[in-house]
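User: Study the chain.
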Amino acid sequence: MEAKEVLRQVKEGTLSIEEAERFFKKQPYQEMGYAKLDTHREIRSGFPEVVYCSGKPDQYLVSIYERLYKENGEVFGTRADKRQYGLVREALPQAVYDEVSRILKIEKPGRERSGKIAVCTAGTADIPVAEEAAQTAEYFGSYVERIYDVGVSGLHRLLSRLEAIQEANCVVAVAGMEGALASVIGGLVSRPVIAVPTSVGYGASLHGLSALLTMINSCANGIAVVNIDNGYGAGYMATQINRLGTGGK
């Protein structure tokens, strides 16, 4: 249960002050031995804890999903594989997996989405990272418009969608190769641009390092850069900006 829901129930008289007090007295994390689940993170930051699935031992992963689902009624995990999905689904049949973004989640139905984030990619090969960003933002309550394959090798494709991009509260620009997309978009919009370098490219792209350096050295203003392939980080930050734009939580 969220803090606001507890307070609402106290106000309506459906929850006693003593019961509410027990809720707020709970320690700010749940000890599992191999993990300390930060169950107060949403109270502090407005975002619940997210599971990074890659590399976690099977039983630890399943137990973490079970505990977070019991606590929050939903769970969001990144960088999962199909085998991990199978394990989690055995314990929690409502779990959903997306092979493109590698997101493994259980989401509360009927979530409203507000504002607007534009997630753009230079090429189709950048879509897995872009989908991680887009689905992260959607899970946290943002409306996302996807604008894919609009890289600088065919600039007319980007310009044909420029109005939709300019209307967004925040733009996520995902690109590998030389990473020029973020600079181009940064010079065309009045909103913050979050640049995401990807590891897409040939040898001298150095697994995304070339795109990262291009984005960091952009002459366009209003661009911030996250780590290589870090779609989740971009989606999270874009949601923070979008919430400021909508006056939301």
